[in-house]
Each structure stands twice: as C-alpha cells, then as structure tokens.
Amino acid sequence: MAKHRQKGADEAVNTDGWMMSYADMATVLLAMFIVLSTLGKDQTGVSLEKGLESWRESRANFGLGGLFATSSNVVKGDAPAPNYHGADDAAGEGGGPDADKGPRGRDAEQERLNRFLAEMDRQFKVDKMPRVAGSATVDFFDPLGPAPPYLTARQAEVVGQVLPLLGRDDYRVTLVVWATTPSDTAWARAAEQARLVADELAAAADLSPPARARLVAVGQTWRYPGFQRPVLSLTIAKTEKPPTPP
Description:
By secondary structure, this protein is of the alpha/beta class. 37% of the residues lie in helices and 17% in strands. It has a 4-stranded mixed beta sheet with strand order 5-8-6-7. It has a two-stranded antiparallel ribbon with strand order 1-2.
C-alpha cells in the first residue's frame, strides 16, 4: 500500500523564479546595446546633436497659437508682453519692463470694459450712449409717499421745471431712489419705487415715448457713510449731439 508523504518546507514552490529570467533578459539587452554602441562609426557625440535639432526648433517656435484663429504665425514665448497700466502705475513703478518697447501699452480697465460690452452686444442689443457735456444733481430728503402721489408738493414743483428738458434729444434725466439698507431686498424695493415715481411723472407731464425713454429710473445703495443719505436724487445731464454725416 503506497504511502503519501507530506511535502516539507524545502519542497515549496519558488515563486521568485521569474526574477532570474528577467535579469538574464536585461543583461542580454544591455550587452547588445553596448556592442551596437561600440561598433558605431561616430563616437564624437554628433548623433546626440542631430537628435536635439527638432527639440531646438520646437523650442524656438513655442508660444501661443496666433492672434487670430486662421493665423499661421505663432506668438513666441520670448516676445515682449503688453504693458498694462494698472496698479504698477498707481504705485509709481511706471509701465513695467516693456515700457520702452514701443506703443504696446493698453489700459487694463478699458480692456475689461470692451470685453464686457462685446459680451453684452452678443446677447443683447447695446448702443453706445452719447458723451455727457455737463450734469447737475438735485437731492431730496423728504420721504416719498406710500401711495400716489409719491412726491411732495415741493418735490413735484422742482421736478416739473426739469421735465420739459426731456423734449430735447440732447438731455436725459436719471431718477435715483436710494435704498435704506445695503441689502438685495432694499435695493429691489428702491428700484420699484423709482419706476413708480418715473411713471407718475411721465403721466403727469404727458411725455412722448422718446422723452419717456430719456427718463431713467434706478435704485441704488448709498456708498458714502460720511454724508447724509438723500431719499431721492435727480440728475440732469446734457449730452453732446452726434456729428451730422456729410
């Protein structure tokens, strides 16, 4: 009868045997590369220089994709950067390191405004407002009425002297109701009050649609803590007429 003998620890399977085959293969590859390098005709490093030519060319032309989508000329990485007039100028540091490289200076604030206007023009119809030649502001401190008429007799008398100017296309009037607190709800309430007051004035003065469009109603928060906050402000602005085409 055959007897089964239990395997001892010395007869366990060697799971690290693959390392010997891997070391043999790595040794063979290393020896092959050494032989190929020894049999090479050029041992002066010229092959390395030739291999670096494409790297040097890509490094010389590395940069942005161009000023326009169809542009084939790239902006190189070492090109002088634009000179933005901003905090450095206010600190007295001048226009930066590229100030002496020609007319490359641009106003950062104007750039942001142009991008904002371009985005608004893409979504809405935006027209540039005429330049203001002069303006005057009248502040009222009497509270508005809770129901029509919203203006007091004194306020209506002063505003009544201004409304006839809206019949001219070179005048516009901005009616501002100041919010009582710097919060969104107070701001929205001030804007609604300004709209109601403007509608009341337009109906009382029988303004035409173009004249009503020049009466702008807005609600704003008061940003001057050192001064008394008015309830209502009226800004009368005279604008420059656009030049007539020849």
